[in-house]
Amino acid sequence: MIADHLVTALETITGPAGIKTSEALRAIHPGSDPHNLDAGLMVLPKNVEQVSAIVKLCNDNRIAIVPHGGRTGLAGGAVSRKDEIILSLAALNRIESVEAAAETAIVECGVTLQALQEEAAKVNLTTGIDIPSRGSATIGGMISTNAGGMEAFRLGVMRQRVLGLEVVLPDGSIMSDLAEVTKSNEGYDLKQLFIGAEGTLGIVTRAVIRLTPADTFTATALVACPSAIAAVSLFQALRHDRSLRLLRTEIMGERYFRVAVEALGPASLAAFTEAPIYLIVETEGLDQQGAQSALENALGAAIENELVLDAIIAQSGKERNDIWNIREDSNVITRAYPNGYWFDISVPLQHLDAYIRQFDGGVASLGADVRGFAFGHLGDGNLHICVAGENGNPDKDAVKAVVYANIRQMGGSFSAEHGIGLEKMPELHALVDPVKLALMRTIKRTIDPNNIMNPGKVVS
Amino acid sequence: MIADHLVTALETITGPAGIKTSEALRAIHPGSDPHNLDAGLMVLPKNVEQVSAIVKLCNDNRIAIVPHGGRTGLAGGAVSRKDEIILSLAALNRIESVEAAAETAIVECGVTLQALQEEAAKVNLTTGIDIPSRGSATIGGMISTNAGGMEAFRLGVMRQRVLGLEVVLPDGSIMSDLAEVTKSNEGYDLKQLFIGAEGTLGIVTRAVIRLTPADTFTATALVACPSAIAAVSLFQALRHDRSLRLLRTEIMGERYFRVAVEALGPASLAAFTEAPIYLIVETEGLDQQGAQSALENALGAAIENELVLDAIIAQSGKERNDIWNIREDSNVITRAYPNGYWFDISVPLQHLDAYIRQFDGGVASLGADVRGFAFGHLGDGNLHICVAGENGNPDKDAVKAVVYANIRQMGGSFSAEHGIGLEKMPELHALVDPVKLALMRTIKRTIDPNNIMNPGKVVS
Q1: Long-range contact list for A259-266, CB < 8 A, 24+ apart?
Q2: Which CATH code fits A337-420?
Q3: Cross-chain Cβ contact B179/A411 below 8 Å
Q4: Does domain B218-328 have CATH number 3.30.70.2190?
Q5: Predicted complex: ipTM over 0.85
């Protein structure tokens, strides 16, 4: 536990409303991990100066800090322990500006993705990054985990959306690099170190975000493909089809699709053609009619070319939502298999079919009652995977051996978009280039010599 | 000079063909800076193992290394001195793979941009980054300077085109992070440190580059705008116009345009409507006819809305080349004013008009015979600027005060896309956040404790 005089010192910085313990803390939802609030003490600064003062106090007194955004992270990066403090950035929630022509926004890090999307929409812009947890996930958290989502294949991951950054370093100093321009080469681009560092090198407090023109007229289809090879060929064809703009291509393996559609409905989609691979394809056109007909033509040609078995194009907002719900409510798998092992990998598209075949074969070899579910973002080759047994889980290491087999040789990643946190540390130590790992440790010791920033996460 | 036994040791690594001195070196073009080859000794490794051995030898013997790509850099980053060696990556010039569906290429760092563009074109892809020096500039050099170019507003700068990187660190170890996927979060993204570091932290030897679908049917226009505000509004309108895809929007101030068009011709363009701001707008359409008519419609509407005074749409490849030549042969200014001072700034679009007004006023205040020329990339607010006197140059510090006035307050950058090298070091020290600058120095000392990597550039 943190000594009383230090709690008093923290309260002097934030005021009484900025300290939450016991009852007040128990009223807060712990988020994705039940241990996120275990520290029992949350500090809520209102501005960067307060963040700086808190971090300095903690550094001087060797108190470990666990930064919190929206607590939607899936790798345990926000888990806290008794001798630590939680530094919640929730009160830094101002959208400071949105520039329509420059396509930029300046935000404090506690702003949620959805709040920024809504503000940007007022000038016909959007964030260019979208994830299902948009209502809770904060820009600071998304920067710290380098979030990915559904549009990364064309607009990049969070790292590509950040133009400028303000960071509080572990000694309390404030590094300000708030350029609002795409082109700025002013020495080493140090802000990149803090993007994806999961709060282990400093605290992101403010950012300049690159926005992009909003999609106005979109068409959405559920597509059944005969194979992953066909799905990749369809993706390639749509990327080169100038009659439409490809916005999103989500992928679902047959097993995922069946569990999801049977749990979530509607019956019309549950009755859809059987296939090994399903896609949700979303495209944009010049107007609503043009968007629908361009997608219809493209999918018609793909059926001719045997890349597609069948397709349903949403004819209403409800039909669109029904299709998206199958993909976005992926908790449907957790509800069916609460103890399943989860993974978050990516493989280059030229290897996606081989990876899926290898995965299906590997899961079968784990036991007749073992199930593998895969879904994710086709354009990035990013699959979210759950492996679970109908009668108790198989050995976790055996499962990992299946999921990670050849992932390096294929040029893929064992950690696509959820980060390392606590959960992926064994993989990091086993699979990352040792020269890179050694340099990571050196950088951590150099920037955070007292190891106060989210200790025990990412590097050890 | 390097001691003979060390030259022998270097020759043992590369073989005799890998060492160039005296006559052999004088046969090589020095590139953008006459002092690039001053070291008098160039080593040309053939593969990463040779690079590693050379760097280790140099580190053990405290020999400074100046890495060379295509020697097209504009900030003096490749300048070398007598006691240093030049490490040319020109022989690492293999394109190892191009993946059509995944839109990636794996290349050795000495591959030129144009060679990669030509290879990618075979599968209807392109690099998503383009600069006039494409025939000489290498991928490694473009990574090391974080090159920008004409498409950055929609596809990012070089940093956004790099998926994976192999780097030789100053101790000779090889850091391999050759992920071929958009989504890879495996701890700190250390490759970012080496992108834009201008060879001061290590040597980029291999990269995975993200490609993008090639533009097939394009239309090109020369546009006269009544003001920078109108030009920015036109840019905004074109970004949101779904009947076309905006590829490039280059900007030229009146004074640049006049000097260029009168020197380069043709007469038809020299007779084009007078205006304070000229643009080259390039767009893509569904087919050739569609591309032309969509641009025609968009510019017609812009004339109605008083955003455009006049426009010429190229009707042939020759007309397109004539228009582009005015912008790409910007050496026309150097030929007219060989001693002019050059700058490379960027400002957010909402401040572009204010910046240009301030610049024009500032130049006028420097003397009646002082001329300011500005041109560059409208979408990024990136201006290349030359200030020169008709009768001898004004004081350089006075010119800098004009060019850099309010650039920070506007959220812009004093160093957009050419890098720091030697030339921008005074600006770096004067204008960069001191916390960032201190951390840059710490990082340099940590990674390159013997200061052998391109010493005296970027940080000091």
Answers
A1: A259/A332, A259/A333, A259/A336, A259/A373, A260/A326, A260/A327, A260/A329, A260/A330, A260/A332, A260/A333, A261/A326, A263/A332, A263/A335, A263/A336, A264/A325, A264/A326, A264/A329, A264/A332, A265/A322, A266/A322
A2: 3.30.70.2740
A3: yes
A4: yes
A5: yes
